[in-house]
Amino acid sequence: MSGRIPEADEPEADQDMDPNHYHLRLYVAGQTTKSLAAMVNLERVCEEHLAGRYEIEVIDLLKNPQLAAGDQILAIPTLVRRLPAPLKRIIGDLSNTEKVLVGLDIRPKAARS
Fold this sequence. Notes:
Elements (H helix, E strand, L loop, with lengths): L11 H4 L6 E7 L4 H17 L4 E7 L17 E6 L4 E4 L5 H7 L10
Parallel strand pairs: 1-2
Antiparallel strand pairs: 1-3, 3-4
């Protein structure tokens, strides 16, 4: 028997067979203006382009600073796309939709004029 049993705290283990499911982690530090903007902007982009195919995990580094090392977080807010592979990172408040779409390898539903 090969492989390993995924830990309960590994949400990506449930979705790793679906290449169309996005597991996103947003690292913030408290309820700052930038952190709140990043949360709102991420939710908007996901609803518009990934409806039903994503999960967002928000990690507050003021409450859990040790979690920054796992994804090598150097600045906040930072969005990490855990799945589908490869891992991707975007730093900032995610207000530039095109930058977010390109950074996450998401293609818009239709070309904009």
